[in-house]
């Protein structure tokens, strides 16, 4: 008589079902076709951003090509706005920074005059308080001071919540943001100059076809074809968390909440970025 036969009928049935499920799961894991999943090297936008980042990091003296348009900075209530543009492309981007009373910030960047408005509905569901208005900082408790630091024009916005003070320092050229809590830097945006915003554009005329080796207008993967009538639409940016050893976020599939390195080189590190697509395959 084996061990299972000695168990009560219901327990034995559950054990058998668990064993079968384990075997089926193992078979599914073994039959995953990794070639059906695009790698960063096979994805045009990911490859462009990684190549851009690698080139920037190899030349640390190279500044970000983005800067704030002169006299475009303003603070209206709890919202800081500015126009940011690339030194070569000259497509104005509308930068918007909203301050919440808790110290949280909402950062948004969009083209000032896009060929077609992009999806922009997240503000209706993100950082909401059951449909009520968000607890933004009151206009009376927030102030902005503009000046020059190390030869760079800066704007510092400050406010407090109880005994905790918050401030954001924005540099104009090159454009960057620094978030401080009680005077200590906590988060930096574009401090490494990796911000890159791909604006919408018209496709070149057919009689003058452009080389599309970077997949800006169309890319293919196995049997799928992804056409982009308005060109590339991605963006990327470096975000540095000062003094933190772990960053937590939404993991991809069965992965720890503590996000791992995605460029390899460390124990347990990944060599592919996290995917947050609706569809993993393409």
Radius of gyration: 25 Å
Q: Count of DSSP E strands? A: 15
**Form type:** globular
* Helical residues, percent: 10-25%
Structural class label: alpha+beta
Proportion of strand residues: 25-35%
What is the string of helix and strand elements? HHEEEEEEEEEEEEEEE
Strand order of the largest sheet: 6-7-8-9-10-15
End-to-end distance, in Å? 52 Å
Spans of at least 5 consecutive residues whose pLDDT stays below 50 are 1-5, 11-17, 19-30
Please count the helical segments: 2
**What is the mean predicted local confidence, pLDDT?**
82
> What does the largest sheet look like?
6 strands, antiparallel
In short:
The chain is of the alpha+beta class and 282 residues long.
Task: Write up this protein.
The protein is built from two helices and 15 strands. The protein is globular and about 60 Å long. It has 282 residues and is α+β, with helices and mostly antiparallel strands. A six-stranded antiparallel sheet has the order 6-7-8-9-10-15, with no helix packed on it.
């Amino acid at each position: 008589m084996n061990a299972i036969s000695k168990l009560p009928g219901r327990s034995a049935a559950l054990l058998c079902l668990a064993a079968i499920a384990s075997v089926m799961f193992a078979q599914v894991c073994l039959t995953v076709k990794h070639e059906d999943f695009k790698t960063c090297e096979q994805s045009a936008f990911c490859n462009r951003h990684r190549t851009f980042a690698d080139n920037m990091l190899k030349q640390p003296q190279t500044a970000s090509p983005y800067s704030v348009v002169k006299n475009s900075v303003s603070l209206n209530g709890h919202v800081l706005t500015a126009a940011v543009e690339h030194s070569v492309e000259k497509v104005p981007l509308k930068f918007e920074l909203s301050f919440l009373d808790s110290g949280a910030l909402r950062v948004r960047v969009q083209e000032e005059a896009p060929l077609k408005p992009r999806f922009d509905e997240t503000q209706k569901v993100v950082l909401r308080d059951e449909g009520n208005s968000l607890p933004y900082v009151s206009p009376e408790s927030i102030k902005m001071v503009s000046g020059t630091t190390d030869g760079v024009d800066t704007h510092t916005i400050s406010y407090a919540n109880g005994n905790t003070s918050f401030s954001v320092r924005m540099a104009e050229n090159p454009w960057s943001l620094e978030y401080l809590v009680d005077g200590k830097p906590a988060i930096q945006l574009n401090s490494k100059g990796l911000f890159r915003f791909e604006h919408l554009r018209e496709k070149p005329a057919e009689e003058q076809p452009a080389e599309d080796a970077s997949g800006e207008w169309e890319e293919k993967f196995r049997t799928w074809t992804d056409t982009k009538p308005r060109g590339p639409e991605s963006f990327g940016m470096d975000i540095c968390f000062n003094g933190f050893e772990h960053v937590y976020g939404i993991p991809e599939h069965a992965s720890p909440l503590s996000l791992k390195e995605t460029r390899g080189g460390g124990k347990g590190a990944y060599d592919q970025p996290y995917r947050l697509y609706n569809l993993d395959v393409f």
